[in-house]
UniProtKB/TrEMBL annotation, chains A, B, C, D, E, F:
Keyword set, alphabetical order: Hydrolase
This protein's record includes keyword Metal-binding: no
Alphabetical list of InterPro entries matching this protein: HD/PDEase_dom, HD_domain, HDIG_dom, NA-bd_OB-fold, YhaM_exoribonuc/phosphodiest
CDD domains linked to this entry: HDc, YhaM_OBF_like
Domain HD: 160-280
GO MF term list: hydrolase activity
Hydrolase found in the keyword field: yes
Biological-process GO terms, alphabetical: rRNA 3'-end processing
UniProt-recorded name of the protein: 3'-5' exoribonuclease
């Protein structure tokens, strides 16, 4: 496949891309044309269909489309001038070419999660966690494919597994090294803390905020979802339910970060630090890996409110 | 009844009070005694049982107890020295003597709410609101009796009805005077906005934060509760559900006040101002009514971050 | 008239516009030309006078000018290439074509204000309010024509009347529904709260911050103005003067929003919520009405710190 | 005179003090008594009149009263048990014994101010300043006697002169050392910046916030007062009036400190630093001079948000 | 030994305590006496020497003193009435009775640190760390005995070792689980991050802020100290020196927490989360262990800005 | 010399400039070219070397280069099309043409500093100050040439001398006018307060943040440097060392401005106001002098969070 980040001015192209957005516009002279945003896993490309002639078939945004055309340059940026376009057939393209994906093995990561789950001893929490991570095939499939964010960190296929595993392992470390922590409660909270992201962000290749996500947010959605399953487990202790929900609700640590409650339990405190540690280290790793050249100082980053620098080997 | 705010040093007492708290302590000499906090609707009173003799029957905190004893004075404060104590029988006392109560008529206020509800036209919202406010007898009874707060404003029996009515009427005014507002959505949101207070704060005479309240908060609890009933109403539009839940979730207006989302809909904006207006005006009214003497300036209030002053008639 | 938002590339134009700004510049080759910003009530247009020949008469910024020329396109934006220009004569154009105007009837709104005023009973406040809103013809004329803001909300002719009426009616509602509020004091404060805007913002078509506005602000200006008239009313009670001025000074509610005092009176608290409610609901209405297409989500708004969304009908 | 800070338990007293406050109370047994707060320049003293017999004449708070009685001790604090009390006659006491006073010479400081004024050259500003500081005898008398604060810094007779001189001299230094500063504008602004304190705080011995002070504040009051006199000076330039008022309005430097505008002129910037420098250095001097013992570290101070320490000689 | 938390009213005492403070005061009748604060590892005790007779020998604050006297009660608190007092001899008391001490084994913890150090491979960092933790006997002795705080968390003998080990192990975990982290740099930074506490807080039994601590703070002191030793190591890379110092300077994570720089390196980010995690979990553990009774809710904690609750077992 | 701010489109150029940056890039067609940023004291200029032919000799960024080429225009900005380029020889150009420089006389300002130093009487502080400002020739040379900032205020050659003198003179004024200030301590602190800027910012013509500057900051660097010299002065009092270092560490006044400690000494308070006053007045002067035209209002400035305006003469 001819990836977007390798295209050169002047080249003739016949390829399938994901049509991320499609606008129907008019030139100043009143003639209709399409302005498209094409995407593959390496980036995005502006494209225009100036002549809505017979080579231009019906398609919509979020369709995979096969285009023929030429790369031109407008104001120093590449642009695709499309002559022919049609919807691509399933099988004609490999969906994984159109979505950024974790560099790690998703199944291996998922198995690590299962191993951690298998060590749980509290019958209620164990039943609850299993009903999601072991028994619910649809959930498992979605969970493995989802990102953990639209941008920032873990914004790729497998990102939700990778981040959830990173947080859960940190929580395991804390439960092993600090007394008084209820291990099964903390592990359950870690596994569920970003559950709501499945509904807050649409699946790839779209990976954008949903209506639910914008109006309710993953913190509310995830807590409600866990609560709904708990109600199906006989005799689940009310106190334990409150504690688990509290950990999910408070995991952003501060009201101004969207948690309606501050952490009041040692497990809630542990979870907020585990989440933050994994998120911030991964953000730093993505910045360092993503920097183009080998300069030491990589520019200002608004999340860290600092210029970022590579350290010595 | 002999109210706490009328007691005088030296007087002999034979009366029923609510035992708000009971501690079993030891004197420095090692002798056991009880330290109690008694309450009626006019205030609280320290009490001691120095001799755990045969006149002292079993009782617990939150029991209504009948005591005999004498009022003494310790470090300028009145204290009750109890000689005899037993649990009071239902009928022996009037529970309304032990809880502060709205000065307005609760049934009249509730009827005003029902009138507003009767004008709703959206079938889904109407069904939802009716299932709480018309059909659920247990909910209605609890709602009428509950306070809207532990302290600050509307912290009395009937307070939740009074505050909910005040907010809903302000929302009616806004829906009538500003275009684009979806009246039924806004009225529903106003009616449900403090629904979670039923679980966040225990009923009178206790009126204190519950475990649910401290760990989850009324914003989460109320939204989840509304969501649970919505799931029982066939074909309730997903979009409308999201909008209503969003109004409840965002009604504190700012993340740092415990809302996990900022208002994104005009109805959510209207609700947050209606809630704030009713709450702040009532707080001011309680300050002005509660001030002991007739001085103009009533001292510093932390909610208003200002000294408060009566205005001219 | 040929409105700016209807112009098309290539068209020849002979029309009057308001010259919002005029700069005298030199090309890189050293030749003088004018760069103008033209305005009507539908928008603004860049214009150039490349040849300062005999068809180009004297004019200045804020003049209404009659131009002849052709619409061209530069970097995707329309631009007017002017061949002839002269000042327009009064009568040759309709000033209302050059200023955005409320969609409501200004006189009707003003009469609503007069009706509210006629119900006042405090003789001092009534005399004060009448001396502005009934007796001062110059004030009345200016007040009816003024905007309530440069941008954001009510930034159009009649905006000050519309906003003042909106706030005053909310205050009437509060005075009728909440005890202890001094109605006449609150109504007077509502009527005067944005009085200083007459001096803070210049009249249309300029509608920009004045020197007074930037150095002193409408809160100070309005309070001082009310104070100056109060001094002409015999026996106006000092206490009432202080209360009224306090309401105006504190109506932004918080020091960081430019009020030098926080509200200390119930009327001051009521006014700050009435002002905020009317301003925020109108801002929301202008966003919803101003959105181009029919998409649900309308993008991020910095005043609400949220993406904004239409709600269901 | 027998000063309050020298009284000892058991001593019999016959002396005049200022009665700062007077409350009429009842004992638990229902008998009336007075609770007083007496004051001289060295401190305050609790006093009780237990027997309202014929030796107890009429008096009110803020009266100078002559008392006879005995010093007792209650809960480790001295208390005066009053047997006889009557209003003192003027001449019977020296008012300066009852108010804290600057250690500097007020007339010398005032003459320094006059010298600075005499060097002004702008005719309008000079006329304005003279109309207060040279021609208005009542103003001069009040200005010399006033404090610059209720507490914190310069809270003593002569404090307003001392602080105004300190700020004005710093402004003179800045005008002499930094280009572009309009000296007369800055000097005028310095002289008037705390003018409103004359109305914000009552005169000694009361020295407490007035109704004007709490509702309007010295920033508004002083600016309005200067504006009123400016209107009596023919042809006072509007621009200069705005600039001077802006300097007074903005002299707290930040909105959250009660200035409705941030400094926009170099003179306004200079004034805010001069005011802050004099205020903070004087606050530090009062802390260092007021510390009882010779320990290096003097405890936490909330204005400096730090423990305070003496430095080496 | 007779510990302070076991004393009872009326008991006669002959025991050694640490004299934490000593004040020489006068009674109201003018008689001199001493007011002392005595301390052992279980708490503190007010003590008075009313008669400065011949049984009262010379001693000073921070001396261990042997007292004879009787326990009395004043306003519900125990107080020691001292009849005889003299300085205790070394050997007469066990210093460990007077200081709170970690419940863990200090030598074992220190050996864990040494094991981690032994795995370092960077020659410069290894040499630097060894020069402190292996070669400097005085440093090792002080480090093992020191607390990590005056109060809050780890405020006991061995606290600095315990906290440093906790942070370093978390850093080891991060270096093992997240790519791009320079392990030796991070380990070194963890070991040195609270080095300055040795000078910021005096050693036990005083354990209070020093002059250095209050004026300079442990962040500056520790960084300077590491810098001084680096200068003695030939060819220590300048870049590595900057990185290590940066990690120490920035380890509080935010400017407002006293770090003059925000973290700019992945190791600095990792360190700030490791430090925070260990500190907050230990704070929570101390709250949970320190709570007197078995109630679930333990009251408001200002560090967590929340009520704290035990979680289910 | 032909300065950058006087260049015109079309002109042929043969001149020396400083090459501030040099990037080696490829055209879309794959051909290599250089993109340069040239600088003199009047501004910067984009330049391209399209043909890497034999007239193009070796050079690097921060070299002074002699170029031949023509001025063209690209998207309304001037660009230099370079035909020939070589490194310039020392002597061929005047370095002062390439760096912005104070308008004051550096030697005269430095002599003013020396005069102030000569009046110091404390032997330790005097020795310390002299070892930098009198005896260390290398330091003196660097200090005179350095800027006090990358941008904002005093960002030119001689800026560090000018700012240090301005602050020191203000401190002299304070020491003379306010009691309790230790003059020599305050003068020393003023002289050293920005010492760390010598390492935080590279010398002209680069004048950019160094690795030390970004990782450690001038506050830490300067304090450590003073500490290192103090250690070479026998018997320098520890207390005085702490005080001086504290003044340097705390001179930004607030933790969030990068000071790890808030001012705790009167000298530290004085220094922070002197530093702020000189910095803010100079910033205002640079804004007023730098404004192009004669309009009163000069636009919004983020440091002052206000529009800035010239005041009347």
């Amino acid at each position: 496949m001819r990836y977007i980040n390798e295209l050169r001015e002047g080249e003739m192209l016949s390829e399938t891309y994901l049509c991320k957005s499609k606008q129907s516009l008019k030139t100043k002279a009143g003639k209709s044309y399409y302005s498209l945003l094409l995407q593959d896993k390496t980036g995005t490309l502006d494209a225009k269909v100036w002549e809505l002639s017979n080579g231009i078939e019906n398609f919509d945004s979020m369709d995979y489309i096969h285009i023929e055309g030429q790369i031109t340059s407008f104001q120093n940026t590449l642009q695709l001038n499309i002559k022919r376009v049609r919807k691509s057939q399933e099988g004609e393209y490999d969906p994984s070419d159109f979505v950024p994906t974790t560099t790690k093995n998703i199944d291996e990561m998922y198995n690590e999660i299962l191993t951690i789950i298998s060590k749980m001893t509290n019958p209620y929490l164990s039943k609850l966690v299993n009903s999601f991570f072991v028994e619910d095939k649809e959930f498992i499939k979605a969970f493995k494919y989802h990102s953990a964010a639209k941008t920032v960190h873990h914004g790729f296929v497998g990102g939700l597994v990778e981040h959830t595993l990173g947080v859960t392992k940190l929580c395991e470390y804390m439960a092993a090294n600090y007394p008084l922590i209820n291990r099964d409660l903390l592990i359950s909270a870690a596994l569920f803390h970003d559950l709501g992201k499945l509904d807050e962000i649409s699946t790839f290749p779209e990976n954008d905020y949903t209506d639910d996500g914008q109006l309710l947010g993953h913190i509310y959605i995830g807590t409600e979802k866990v609560g709904a399953i708990i109600r199906t487990i006989p005799n689940f202790p009310k106190s334990l339910e409150n504690e688990l929900k509290h950990c999910i609700l408070s995991h952003h640590g501060e009201l101004e970060y969207g948690s309606p409650k501050k952490p009041a339990l040692i497990e809630a405190v542990a979870l907020t630090y585990a989440d933050n540690t994994d998120a911030k280290l991964q953000t730093m790793i993505e910045i360092l890996n993503g920097a183009d050249d080998k300069s030491e100082w990589l520019g200002y980053n608004k999340f860290f409110e600092s210029n970022i620098r590579r350290s010595s080997k």
